[in-house]
Each structure stands twice: as structure tokens, then as C-alpha cells.
Amino acid sequence: MKLLGTQTSPYVRKARLVLLEKNIPHEYVIDPPREPGSLVSRVNPLGRIPALILDDGFCVFDSTVIAEYADTLNDAPILIPHDPVARLRVKRWEALADGIMDSAIVARNESIRPNEKQDVTILGLHNRAISHALEYASELLGTNAWCEGNGITLADLALASALIYLDLRQAERDWRGTHANLAAWFARVSARPSVQATLT
């Protein structure tokens, strides 16, 4: 299979982390959708990344769908629990992390507009949403080693992807200084070979 994406997309990183953690053989292809000749628009009607092309040519798109599909391919590890309550808790973490990514991307796109065209209301709304989500994540994590359960899950991979994106696009945001438990958790999770592979 082949995963299409870019190095900066947090959604692509989340999909890559799932494939890497589960040791699923795949080819990662950097393919910015806006560039002429991009394969993305030919395989994904939405023209978005990540896009996972299976060996038979079938295309799976959206990071949440890719993660769910990939998790069914083997049991080492199970990233989305089968138990309904545990599954719900992990998927809630994913939604929280994806919300951070969504707001960070909106804030980024607004911030690179000319100053006179920036909408400070939009910037404020999304930056406050990020701050509130980080506070919630910090409280929810507490002193736990993992976001949910006794081992790594999609919750950890999604949150790591969101925090890496914040470091990239909002380097001025001192989330480590504000949330020491998130910083300690992130230092441990980001040392994993899967995460390191997505940073190079």
C-alpha cells in the first residue's frame, strides 16, 4: 500500500504513526495536493491528504478512516480497543486532538494573510479553543503514562500529532511550561521510533 501526504500535515502524521506502530508495510510518498501532477486529486475526490492507496488501487481517505482500517490489519498492538467504552474513550481523545489540529490550521492560515486582512475574531476563537483543549487534555491525562489504558493507543498517536503541529506552527505557545504533565508524556512518546521516523 501507498500513503500519500506531506511532512507538515498533522493528519498525515497520525496516519503514518498508526501504520508504523503496527508495522504495516507501506510506501510513504510526499505528494502535496496543490502541486501540478499530484496523484492525490486523482485518487481522492476531495483532493485531500492523507490518502492511502491499497494494493488493488482502492483509496482510503481521511485520517480517522485510515486509522480504523489499519488497526484491523493485525493485533500488535491494538490501537482502538474493541470494548465499547474503552473504544469511545480513545476515539474521544482522537476527536480532541483532531480539534486542536483543526483550530491550529485555521489559525495558521489566518495568520499568514496580510495584517490588514486578518480576522482577529477568528484568530482569537481558534487560539482560545486550542488553549482550552490543552487544559482539558492535561487534566484528563493527569499522572497517567498513557492517554488511555496500560499501553499506547490511537489516543496517544493523535495527541502527539497535534502537539508536534503546534510546535511547528505556534512555536511561541509555551504549552510545555503551562502543562508539565503533557510535556513529560510527550517527551516519552516522541522518543518512540515511530514518532522519530515522522520527524525526518
Give the arrangement of secondary structure elements.
Blueprint: E1 2-5, H1 10-21, E2 27-30, H2 40-43, E3 51-53, E4 59-61, H3 63-71, H4 84-111, H5 120-141, H6 154-169, H7 175-178, H8 180-189, H9 193-199
Helix pairs in contact: 1-3, 1-6, 4-5, 4-6
Write up what this structure looks like:
The protein is built from nine helices and four strands, in the order E-H-E-H-E-E-H-H-H-H-H-H-H. It is 56% helix and 7% strand. The chain has a four-stranded mixed β-sheet, with helices on one face.
Quantity of strands, as a count: 4
Low-confidence stretches: none
Largest sheet: 4 strands, mixed
Give the oligomer, counting copies of the same chain as homo and different chains as hetero. Answer: single chain
Major sheet: order of its strands?
2-1-3-4
Secondary structural class: alpha+beta
Computed over alpha carbons, the radius of gyration is 17 Å
Q: What percentage of residues falls in helices of 4 or more residues?
A: 55-70%
Average the pLDDT over all residues and give the rounded result: 97
Shape: globular
Distance between the termini: 21 Å
Number of helices: 9
Order of helices and strands: EHEHEEHHHHHHH
Percent in strands: 5-15%
